[in-house]
Specification:
Blueprint lengths: L4 E2 L10 E7 L8 E2 L2 E8 L2 E5 L2 E5 L3 E5 L5 E5 L1 H5 L6 E8 L3 H5 L3 H14 L3 E3 L1 H14 L4 H17 L3 E3 L11 H17 L6 H7 L4 H12 L3 H17 L6 H7 L5 H12 L3 H12 L2
Parallel strand pairs: 1-3
Antiparallel strand pairs: 2-9, 4-7, 4-9, 5-6, 5-8, 7-10, 10-11
Helix pairs in contact: 4-5, 7-8, 9-11
C-alpha cells in the first residue's frame, strides 16, 4: 500500500471533476495529489488524518484541501466489520489551483482566493450554515454537466470565500515532507495504529511494523508526522474518547479502557493535556449543549 502522488480522472482538465463514492469502507491509504480537493462525507464515521491533524469525522463532514496535502479517511471498526451494506457515501470534487485565475480577474476576489488557499494548505473543515448550503450545491452538481455544473460550483466557491464557519486542521507550521518510500512505511504504521489503538502498542511493536529499530522509528515518525509517536497515539485515543463520552450509557471508566488507556490516571492526564479539560467536564459540557 503506497501513499504517493496520484493521478486523478481528468487531471489535465482546466476545470473541475466530481465523483460520487458508494463503498463498503474507505480505501484507507495516505495519499496526495496535484489538485485541490473538496470532500463531502455524506454517510460514514471514523478518523481522518490531514497533514499532522488526526480527528474524528461523522456524517456531513466537509473538508477543503490544497494540492499535495497528505490525507486519509479510516472508517470506524464497526463499519469495517459490516460489509453487508455499503457504509460509505461521499462526494469528492477536484479542481486545479489556478481555476480562479482562469475565470476571475477581479483583484478583490483574487485576494480572497489567495487567503482561502493559504488556509486550505492546513485543511478547512466547514461547519454550520455554510456547510449545509455547500453540500446542497454539491448534490446538484452530480446531476449537471458543462456550464450549469460550473455555475453551481461557483456558488460553493462564493460561500468558501466569504464564510467564517470553518476549522483549520493541520498545524500552523505543517510542512509536507513525504516521498514514496517514506509514505509506504507510514501507511503500514497508520493502518496498524488505526486497527489497534484501543490495545497496548509498545514502541518495539510499532517500530517492527516499520522494519526499523525503536530509536530510528522515533526519529522517522516525528519527522513525517511532525509530532512524536506517543503524542500521535494519545491524540488518537483522546479523540476517540471524546466520541465515546457523548454516549451517556458508558461510564467514564468504560470510556477510559475502550479508548486504549490501561489506567484512569493516564487517561485523565492526557485527556486534559490534549483536550484542555477533564473527561467529566467534557461530558457535562456536551450534554448541556445537546440539551440546550
Amino acid at each position: 500500500m503506497k501513499a504517493v502522488l496520484i493521478e486523478l480522472p481528468n487531471q489535465h482538465s482546466s476545470l473541475i471533476s466530481i465523483k460520487k463514492v458508494k463503498e463498503h469502507d474507505f480505501n484507507a491509504t495516505l495519499h496526495y495529489h496535484d489538485f485541490c480537493e473538496l470532500s463531502f462525507v455524506k454517510r460514514s464515521s471514523g478518523k481522518r488524518i490531514i497533514g499532522d491533524s488526526i480527528t474524528n469525522f461523522n456524517d456531513g463532514d466537509l473538508v477543503l484541501m490544497s494540492p499535495n496535502l497528505p490525507h486519509m479517511w479510516y472508517g470506524d471498526v464497526e463499519m469495517h466489520n459490516n460489509r453487508v451494506n455499503k457504509s460509505v457515501e461521499a462526494i469528492v470534487t477536484y479542481f486545479p489551483i489556478n481555476f480562479f485565475e482562469k475565470i476571475c480577474s477581479d483583484d478583490e476576489d483574487l485576494s480572497k482566493k489567495r487567503a482561502l488557499f493559504e488556509k486550505a494548505k492546513r485543511g478547512m473543515c466547514f461547519t454550520g450554515k455554510a456547510r449545509k448550503k455547500m453540500t446542497k450545491h454539491l448534490e446538484k452538481m452530480l446531476h449537471l454537466g458543462g456550464l450549469p455544473q460550473i455555475i453551481e460550483f461557483l456558488k460553493i466557491v462564493n460561500i468558501m470565500l466569504n464564510t467564517d464557519e470553518y476549522e483549520l486542521l493541520a498545524g500552523l507550521g505543517y510542512n509536507h515532507t513525504y516521498n514514496e518510500k517514506d509514505t509506504e512505511r507510514m501507511n503500514q504504521v497508520y493502518k496498524y495504529i488505526m486497527m489497534n489503538f484501543t490495545k497496548p502498542i509498545s514502541l518495539e511493536t510499532i517500530a517492527s511494523v516499520a522494519h526499523m529499530t525503536p530509536p530510528a522509528f522515533c526519529n522517522f515518525f516525528k519527522k513525517r508526522a511532525q509530532k512524536s509517536f506517543t503524542r500521535f497515539l494519545n491524540e488518537l485515543r483522546t479523540g476517540h474518547a471524546c466520541k465515546l463520552l457523548q454516549n451517556e450509557k458508558l461510564s467514564i471508566s468504560d470510556v477510559c479502557y475502550e479508548s486504549g488507556y490501561q489506567n484512569f490516571v493516564n487517561f485523565n492526564k492526557y485527556f486534559k493535556q490534549i483536550i484542555g479539560k477533564t473527561p467529566s467536564t467534557y461530558r457535562k459540557e456536551f450534554v448541556t449543549i445537546r440539551n440546550f
